[in-house]
């Protein structure tokens, strides 16, 4: 087990430290999270169309959603890798 520690803020702005035990294999699997290949491929297509100025409003919304998901996965992945003492690839 590896301890997953994170500071949580309450509404009163007081910091509370919480530690959660998690199996090492689980933290490693979180560290390997990525967009599925089809979603990543679609994001690349949308970004290319965006660079060419060819996106529709629907495509722009789709791209923004995929970018947000990718960013969130990256942050969670980075935190897991930090706990494991690894650097992101």
Fold topology:
Layout: E1 2-9, E2 15-22, H1 24-31, H2 37-51, H3 57-84
Helix pairs in contact: 1-3, 2-3
Describe this protein's structure.
Helices cover 57% and strands 18% of the residues. By secondary structure, the protein is an alpha+beta fold. The protein has one domain. Strands 1-2 form a two-stranded antiparallel ribbon. The radius of gyration is 17 Å and the shape is elongated.
Q: List how many beta strands DSSP finds.
A: 2
Distance between the termini: 23 Å
What order do the strands of the largest sheet run in, or round the barrel if closed?
A: 1-2
Shape designation: elongated
User: Major β-sheet, in short?
Assistant: 2 strands, antiparallel
Topology as a string of helices (H) and strands (E)? EEHHH
The chain-level structural class is: alpha+beta
Low-confidence stretches: 1-12
Mean pLDDT: 84
Features:
89 residues, two-stranded antiparallel ribbon, disordered N terminus, alpha+beta, 2 strands
Summarize the structure.
The chain is α+β, with helices and mostly antiparallel strands and 89 residues long.
